[in-house]
Each structure stands twice: as structure tokens, then as C-alpha cells.
Amino acid sequence: MNINLLNGDITKIEVDAIVNAANTSLLGGGGVDGAIHKAGGPEILEDCRKIRSQQGGCKVGEAVITTAGKLPARFVIHTVGPVWQDGRQGEEELLYNAYQNSLLLARENNLTSVAFPNISTGIYRFPKVKAAEIAIKCVTLFLREHPSIAVHFVCYDTENYEIYEELLTGKKTPH
Ligand code: AR6
Questions:
Q1: ipTM greater than cut 0.95
Q2: Are 161 and 14 in contact (CB under 8 A)?
Q3: I need a surface site. Which of 8, 139, 162, 164 has the fewest CB within 10 A?
Q4: Organism's domain of life (predicted)?
């Protein structure tokens, strides 16, 4: 299976598309969203504004695609993960949808390499182990159907990296 684990900054990764953990406004923010807009320059925000004027932003669990501006990647797929509340507000399904809709958009655009950050596990406070299990499950099932796509999980913090390492190499099957 074409899954790779990396530790580092997603803005530096040369792939067809990097995924942004955006918010519903698509107008930027902190965390990885801030880093992507800062490194990629204003063209990304221009595209986001166009999408906003057409469809009014991006709903939680959905995804949109823009230029990557000055980044080494070709495109940015912006998805919106859920804010973790108490786990009873559909958070798990919404996070799954965010990964799946990003992959579907990559596929629709004939992209073959996609890098994901750990969506929702920063400012949105989604529990990291649960988020990693959902991400790995979604990607594993998707790649079974679409083996030509390579997925990179790019972990910025050591805690996430270690969680992914254990889940991916510890051969724990996603449930
Ligand atoms: N490369 C890769 N991962 C990163 C980077 C980077 N340069 N910077 C941070 N991370 P967060 P969320 C990791 O907070 O929880 C924004 O304001 C970080 O360590 O960026 O989905 C948006 O506009 C964490 O593991 O996103 C939204 O309002 C992961 O990225 C809100 O934050 C996600 O953390 C979204 O919150």
C-alpha cells in the first residue's frame, strides 16, 4: 500500500496536492492553514475568495481545490475538519468525510500524490489517536480501490508522528 509517514512541515512537500486543515470561511487562520497561506503567497487566498463567491465557503467534511501558489506542490486541497466537542456531534464521521472528500477531489483531478496534515488535531482539539485511526482507515480503504495514488501523512508534532508510526508499523488493523 502506498502510504508514507513523514515528520515535518507540509509546505515543503513536493506532491501533486497538499491538504490544508482549513475553516469554513476559507479565508485562512492559524496552524497549518496559516503556514500554507504564508508560504504559498496571495494566489491561494485569491482562489479561495473565488470559491467563496461561488459557493459560500466550504462545509465541515467537504473539500475544495486551489492553486498552490509558490509552494512546491501543484495544488492545495482545502478541507474542513470538525471541532471536537464531546464526540457525540458526529465528529468522527465528519473527520472521515474530510479525508475521503479530499481523496475524491484528488482522484477527480487525476492527481497521484497527496500529503495530509493531522486534520482537526490542533486548534480543533480532536483526540489524536482517534483522529489517526480514522485517517488511516479512510486512506487504506480508498487506496484499495485506487492503488495508483500515493498518500503521505505529514506529522508536524512528535506525538502525532509516534501515534502514526505505531498504527502503521504495528500492523494494528483499523476497525
Ligand atoms: N505542516 C504540517 N502540519 C502542521 C503545520 C505544518 N506547517 N503546522 C501545524 N501543523 P491545526 P485544526 C499540524 O490547528 O486542528 C486554523 O486556524 C498541527 O501540529 O493547524 O484542523 C484553521 O483556519 C496539528 O497536528 O488545524 C481552522 O480555523 C495539525 O497540523 C483551525 O485552525 C492540525 O492543526 C483548524 O484546526
A1: yes
A2: no
A3: 8
A4: Bacteria
